[in-house]
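Whether sequence alone determines local backbone shape is best considered at the level of individual chains. In the encoding step, the backbone of a single protein was reduced to a row of integers, each denoting a local shape. For completeness, the protein is quoted in full, as a sequence line and a line of structure tokens.
***
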Amino acid sequence: MTVAIVKYNAGNICSVVNALKRLGVEPILTDDHDVLRRADRVLFPGQGEARQAMSYLREHRLDSLLVSLTQPVLGICIGQQLMCRHSDEGDTECLGLFPVDVCRFTPARHEDKVPHMGWNQVTALGQRPCQLFDGIAEAEYVYFVHSYYVPLCDFTVAQTEYILPFSAAIHRDNFYATQFHPEKSGDVGERIIKNFLNL
């Protein structure tokens, strides 16, 4: 199996590379269109700022490539947000794979801190079962770092609550995405990555 990671203007890619290597997978970190098209699985991870990331994707024509992929694709953190239609961060038009807009957390109480950072529970939605969560117990803890969130929508397959309920994971056709970092989420995250590879 060939696993490709999209190389673009975003940080925290190395942790995903290392997580895959721990599973015995040697991923290819690339922005080469042909390599990405031929890969069996594509991961679109990272941390960063939406406008700068989308500018890089457009400059390298990765925006049109990503939306054309037909194999399973997994977006992580900003990857999930960029798969959506629009982000409040920098008033950015994104890839539009999911017709939903990304919003910034607005603290409701003094103790609410933004970004949402640390371990929180994720609940898979039984009415929209998703293979990413096969074998994952209810209300397991996963690791988040984000100031922006995808609201609950028709594509939500798992949710978390911080200030308000939001989409911890979304799925549409061959596109999957998590707001949390499975590569930093211990055994639970490792199982989610394995489930993605086994789709």
